[in-house]
TrEMBL record:
Its EC number is 6.1.1.21. NCBIfam families: hisS. The keyword Glycoprotein does not apply. Keywords: Aminoacyl-tRNA synthetase, ATP-binding, Cytoplasm, Ligase, Nucleotide-binding, Protein biosynthesis. It comes from the Bacteria. The gene is hisS. Belongs to the class-II aminoacyl-tRNA synthetase family. This is Histidine--tRNA ligase. One of its GO terms (molecular function) is histidine-tRNA ligase activity. SUPFAM superfamilies: Class II aaRS ABD-related, Class II aaRS and biotin synthetases.
Amino acid sequence: MKYQRPKGTFDILPEDSAKWQYVEKKARELFKKYRYQEMRTPIFESFEVFSRTSGETSDIVTKEMYDFYDKGDRHITLRPEGTAGVVRSFVENKLYGPEFQKPVKTYYMGPMFRYERPQAGRLREFHQIGVEAFGVDSPTLDVEVIAMAIDLLQNFGLKSLKLALNTLGDNESRTNYRQALIDYLEPYEDQLSADSKERLHKNPLRVLDSKDQADQKIVADAPSILDHLTPAAKEHFETVKSLLDALGIEYVVDPNMVRGLDYYNHTIFEIMSDSKAFGGKWTTVCAGGRYNGLVEQLGGPETPGIGFGLGVERLLLVLEAETDQLDLSDPLDVYIVSIGEKVNAEALKLVQALRHQGFSAERDYLARKPKGQFKTASRLNARYTLTLGETELEARQANLKNMATGEETSVALAAIYGDFATVLSKGE
């Protein structure tokens, strides 16, 4: 039998993992500047955590969730996105308490799962990096989250970005708009796709998000939610736009953007790239929005929230296509060239001692000839080599070579074990 990875998944091999570590490291560094702290939640949750929050008519719930019943007959789901699990944890661990400073700023990284047709940048197991901030309903926080998302993408070297912005308003705005949308769509009901027919009276905003071409033509002239905002919702959105202007962040307002999850309200946004990785077509690489009410849905007190998420696989496609060179350098400090079986134990002690002193160190494990070991040291971009043969061992010495200059000198093993950094500084 030939064993293969499941369809829609892939192996991150050692030669590729450096790219992932680069992305994660850059994200962690930026989030730290904005005072966000990491939260890690389970890869699987109760089915209701996502069915209740994502919306019963969303594609995620109706088509894409990996769900099953475990041996205790509990309905379990592999997480399809990050926000709902973080909110569940926020509520369960009572992070809304008065002892926690507001906003509570968190971020997450990890795998998500959706059953959909695999394609470039969209897999059945995929990885997200996201942030969530709780406890503040100010449009200023909306703008800070958007600015942080743009900062993150620009720190990765992405230059051609477009910010699309919309609002879904407050509950009253959505109620008013919902009826206006139903009134508009009902005359076209027979022309709608099967999914949109089902959603028409359950959640008509989902029709705006349809990928069916016939549906898209119908909704092109649909009423805009911007014409149904309450004064408070309109003021929130206007403040968001004015603060983006103050930061010099350009944006376009897209009144038909609704996002794929039902928990959003007020500000929503997508950041797109026209990278050649996508054939020059504007494609979303990061998206998010405000979700006041989501904490209450999972049993917590009234607590506003906002966040964003980005897919790591899709981001890597853009990075590989758009940036000249990722900073993936991993130079080796020292390579131990060991000659003869008698020096094996000492070579092992030496390489371990260097690692304990903070140096990256490697050695030969195949008893190769010195020429082959030096070739390996060169291939690994070693800064220095330490050669240890039987003669050197008897003299308690090693031959130190600067691989850049070719300069060689004999160094006492005791000095290397004591403080190799001092040995190097004397040599320089």
